[in-house]
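Quick one, probably user error.
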């Protein structure tokens, strides 16, 4: 019997794709890592232990068949590996790039527990799907037999796009409404190119457009149509808007010019990368070039902002975070990348006031210490008396996370039920809101979460909407009879 290509984790060291040198990658918005060559991808996939209980799959929100497509990759059966990966995910190459694998699949890899270092799952996932695109293995969207029913989806982010793909494959007419001029939501405008190059997103969107999904871009529900207007146009609706309301800082001077929202800053940078004319960038208000930049926050959005500022040529970039490094909510890999690129982290620090009236000139802050654990189990930060200090700042970026917008007011639907956090209230057995035929999925239900969870929700809600639409069609037939 031929020697198995698997279970090589003892003989082979863990290896990730080579990263470009920090000084080089800080000069552009291209992805920072080179892709695995074929031999290296097969070699790393062969480290998988093929364990009986694959914790990597269990801890993946999509329950991807990870050990199986790793084995196929190790055997050189790349097309089959892609097809298996694609069977559970609508965007495997995107998840391979931006998922926090250190907290999900790789963080729960059995050989990681054994001390041999996890299989580099995300890098292999990215490799096999990029290879599929290059070789023409990614097939056009297969559209099912027409059902004569129409679905409207509000929001062209990962949840909306995923639901649209499954529903279109089921034979429904699908229309997507999004307020931006390009589809993709935060994949397009919220995540910088050095983590997710925009052609990777645009080719996914184009595949859906080629499959007959109709995109209404630059369309604001509430301005161009109310929710009720869309209900009359479609047999079912899905709200998948995400959460976009930035959390605020309550401190003197926070309204000074130059204290800006993270999403405004990132959208401006991404638009510039697309080649758009962006006045806020050209006039310098959302451009870090030559400035002392302070970013407040410790999540992945904060990491996106500090690393964007480095690439824009900031004079200095500091990240102010109220907890320590071990308690950061963002990916530790992103922190490491930011440190390599020259970002200075000011741990256990929180802003108290912002200097400047005509324009921000500095941040007054205080050192923090970690007290007893709060309700979430994390040690709560508390001020350390007498530890005040000041940082020079020409640009301050607030990256404290996002809450739900007031959708009932925005959509002209006062009867749309929300939770006390402003997220949409749904029946979790059907993913339907309190309004019949109106479903919701993704961050607008969960609160700010991961892209992979949005994809999972999009997949699940498509199934629930399909059941609802079949029942509706059956009732219509009985009524006509």
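Nope, works fine. Designed sequence:
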């Amino acid at each position: 019997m031929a020697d198995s290509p698997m279970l090589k984790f003892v003989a082979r060291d863990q290896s990730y794709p080579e990263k470009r040198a920090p000084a080089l990658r800080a000069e552009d918005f291209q992805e920072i890592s080179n892709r695995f060559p074929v031999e290296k991808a097969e070699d790393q996939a062969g480290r998988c232990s093929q364990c009986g209980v694959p914790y990597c799959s269990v801890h993946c929100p999509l329950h991807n068949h990870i050990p199986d497509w790793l084995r196929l990759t190790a055997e050189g059966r790349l097309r089959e590996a892609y097809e298996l990966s694609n069977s559970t995910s609508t965007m495997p190459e995107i998840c391979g790039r931006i998922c926090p694998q250190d907290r999900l699949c790789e963080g729960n890899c059995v050989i990681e527990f054994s001390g041999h270092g996890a299989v580099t799952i995300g890098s292999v996932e990215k490799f096999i799907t990029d290879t599929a695109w290059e070789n023409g293995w990614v097939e056009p969207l297969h559209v099912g037999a027409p059902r004569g029913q129409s679905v409207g989806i509000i929001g062209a982010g990962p949840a909306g796009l995923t639901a649209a793909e499954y529903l279109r494959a089921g034979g429904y007419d699908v229309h997507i409404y999004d307020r931006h001029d390009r589809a993709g939501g935060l994949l397009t405008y919220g995540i910088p190119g050095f983590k997710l190059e925009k052609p990777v997103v645009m080719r996914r969107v184009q595949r859906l457009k080629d499959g007959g999904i109709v995109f209404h871009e630059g369309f604001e529900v509430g301005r161009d149509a109310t929710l009720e207007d869309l209900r009359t146009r479609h047999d079912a609706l899905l709200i998948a808007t995400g959460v976009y309301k930035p959390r605020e800082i309550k401190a003197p001077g926070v309204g000074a010019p130059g204290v800006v929202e993270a999403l405004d800053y990132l959208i401006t940078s991404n638009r510039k990368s697309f080649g758009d004319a962006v006045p806020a960038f050209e006039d310098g208000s959302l451009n870090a070039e030559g400035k002392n930049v302070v970013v407040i926050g410790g999540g992945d959005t904060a990491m996106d902002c500090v690393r964007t500022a480095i690439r824009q040529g900031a004079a200095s970039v500091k990240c102010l975070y109220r907890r320590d490094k071990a308690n950061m909510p963002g990916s530790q890999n992103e922190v490491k990348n930011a440190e390599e690129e020259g970002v200075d982290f000011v741990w256990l620090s929180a802003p108290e006031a912002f200097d400047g009236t005509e324009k921000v000139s500095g941040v007054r802050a205080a050192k923090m210490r970690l007290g007893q654990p709060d309700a979430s189990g994390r040690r709560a930060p508390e001020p350390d008396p007498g530890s005040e200090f000041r940082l020079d700042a020409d640009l301050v970026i607030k990256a404290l996370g996002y809450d739900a917008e007031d959708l009932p007011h925005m959509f002209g639907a006062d009867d749309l039920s929300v939770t006390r956090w402003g997220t949409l209230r749904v029946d979790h057995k059907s993913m339907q809101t309190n309004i019949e035929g109106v479903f919701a999925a993704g961050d607008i239900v969960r609160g700010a979460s991961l892209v992979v969870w949005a994809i999972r929700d999009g997949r699940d809600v498509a199934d629930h909407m399909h059941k609802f639409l079949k029942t509706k069609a059956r009732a219509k037939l009985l009524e006509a009879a």
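The chain is about 35% helix and 15% strand.
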